[in-house]
Specification:
The structure holds two protein chains of two kinds. Chain A is α+β, with helices and mostly antiparallel strands. Chain A is about 20% helix and about 30% strand. In chain A, the strands form two sheets. A five-stranded antiparallel β-sheet of chain A has the order 8-7-6-5-9, with no helix packed on it. In chain A, strands 2-3-1-4 form a four-stranded antiparallel β-sheet, with helices on one face. The longest helix of chain A has 14 residues. Chain A is elongated. Chain B is built from one helix and five strands. Classes of the chains: A alpha+beta, B mainly beta. At the A-B interface, helix 1 and strand 2 of A face strand 4, helix 1 and strand 5 of B. Strand 2 of chain A pairs antiparallel with strand 4 of chain B, so a sheet runs across the interface.
């Protein structure tokens, strides 16, 4: 596996273009991987770095090939994305980062791992109203599970 | 229009039905992006259980 450095937020466009060129010019590129957690990089599965170098020639937003290669085992964890609620525990203090309650602080009341949702209660609310939000719509502020 | 991913096979599709598994269960909420060019020689394809070339999502909600 080789790593291509790209402009941030252009990873998918770069992967599409490299795939298009590889098909057209019959480069031996087998797969391209763009994990969301890896901003600014595209992983390319190819037998030799020269192939990747050749394929990115003229591709806009593709900057360079990082020297050296990675083994498949090193990148394998990108293929199984962990659920968004990992690291969120009941009682944790979170900040909502999107939706109508953006910027509000809340305490986690329930975590639904299968649906990747959490139920929270806002600190600012006059009466405690449980709100269910997506696990990736919050940022964990403190993990202490001591009830106030 | 944003691309949608098939909930069954994770393939990124442009129409309303997945051309491979004919499923209409598509989702706009997907993350992680993989392009498989040579499924036979690719370890990524093997690990993901993909045997057709194309564009795929790693996670579909």
């Amino acid at each position: 596996m080789f790593v291509v450095k790209t402009t941030a937020n252009q990873e998918r466009a770069v992967a599409n273009l490299i795939a298009q060129i590889a098909r057209k010019e019959k480069h031996d590129i087998r797969a391209l991987l763009v994990p969301d957690v890896l901003k600014g990089y595209v992983l390319v599965e190819a037998p030799a770095p020269e192939i990747v170098e050749q394929a990115i020639q003229g591709v806009p937003h593709a900057r360079s090939v990082i020297r050296g290669s990675s083994t498949f085992e090193e990148v394998e964890h990108f293929l199984t994305p962990k659920p968004a609620v990992v690291g969120i525990t009941e009682g944790a203090v979170v900040e909502l980062i999107s939706g109508p309650f953006k910027g509000e602080m809340a305490r986690v009341k329930r975590v639904d791992v299968t649906k990747e949702e959490i139920t929270v209660e806002l600190f600012e609310a006059m009466v405690p109203i449980p709100i269910t939000v997506r696990g990736d719509h919050v940022r964990v502020l403190s993990k202490d599970d001591v009830q106030r | 229009m944003t691309d949608q991913a098939c909930r069954e096979c994770h393939r990124i599709v442009e129409g309303l039905v997945c051309p491979i598994c004919s499923s209409a269960s598509l989702s706009k909420d997907w993350s992680g992006y993989v392009v498989i060019i040579d499924p036979k020689g690719s370890m990524v394809a093997e690990r993901l259980g993909i045997n057709l070339p194309g564009r795929y999502a790693l996670k579909v909600r």
